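#struct-queue
[09:14] JT: dropping the first one here, sequence first, then the structure tokens:
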Amino acid sequence: MKRSDAPEPQRRTLLATALTALVLPAHVFGKSDPNNQDMTDMKIRLTFADRSMSASLYDNASARDFFTMLPLNLTIDDFSSNEKIAYLPRKLTTEGHGPFNNERPYDLCYYMPWGNLAMFYADYKHPGLIRLGRVDEGRDALHLAGKFPLRIEPLP
């Protein structure tokens, strides 16, 4: 077959494929929507300064990777005026991450450049974050100023 005889993609086929990619849910094409994630049954407890918080993790590769590391003994410390941070022993997978634009206080995130957890207790917006989950109970603990030993463990 000569090169000129090879069938060329029809313009309609290309247009239909592009429109399908926009209309179908993102998970069909292998990437979830970071603005609309489902919660999982992965629940954790974070304990520091005689206070305890519980959080639910989202259904994404980074949250699952984080959950496999538990239990962890870390240090939690203040950072900026809206968050507490804790450094993980290793970086998490960033597979399937993407920007999100519906940030809310009490999100539990992973900051990719530094490899740390970021627990927000006030409004925030920053590139480089992957949302891991949400603090469900004990949110007031995040407002306690200072540096403390932190225990993170899975809840049954």
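[09:21] JT: and here's the second one, same format:
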Amino acid sequence: MKIIAMIPARFNASRFPGKLMKDLAGKPVILRTYESALHTKLFDDVYVVTDSDVIYDVIKAADGKVIMSKKEHDCGSDRIAEAVEDLDVDIVINVQGDEPFIDEVSLRKLIEVFKDDVNKTIDLASLKVKMNTLEDIENPNNVKVITDQNNFAIYFSRSVIPYHRDQTLKVNYFKHKGVYAFRKNALMDFYNTPMTPLEAAEKIEAIRYLEVGKKIKMIETSVESIGIDTPEDLEKAKKLF
């Protein structure tokens, strides 16, 4: 299998515009992320895909591989699909551009899902992490996921799922981490399908895959991602470096 990493990199992030070009220990955040993905040695190739001339130029200047997006896109999956449409690749891993501290262990687990799937029954793999506080569970910014007994996703929601009606039973709640591993054909099917009703209602792109019948294998991880969503996050990242 040919396995590549794609790092979608949009310049105008709503909460922290231009964050991917902010300085992190002498290099822009996006370049730190790109180099971290390379250093894992998990991938046959690593690409940045962007709508920004500035990001394109900084990756090119570092002799990196970068693709310019031709269109505006509603989500990272669409941006990645456009970029890989003409590439000879089997598995595509979506690496978040604002997470320079790559979680190598979790990425390795996602790749192993496809190496073990000899019958090619799995379309996507993604990550979930257990939530332990009521604040996290009730926060609509945390996308919740429920799975069947084989850890295939049943549904994703910003609401609290499952509803804990019987308080005598212990219920675990899991947050979906937006890191995906796709078979290329599943990604292209997503790209060629209009936004679906439940996806539109929840504003969760993973739901479109479920609505068109794709199977998503969920892998539990205990590693919380370290993303840069605010100026305060950037200061924390500088201290970690």
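[09:30] RK: nice, looked through the second one.
[09:31] RK: The chain has a mean pLDDT of 93.
[09:31] JT: good to know. Residues 93 and 107 are 8 Å apart (CA to CA).
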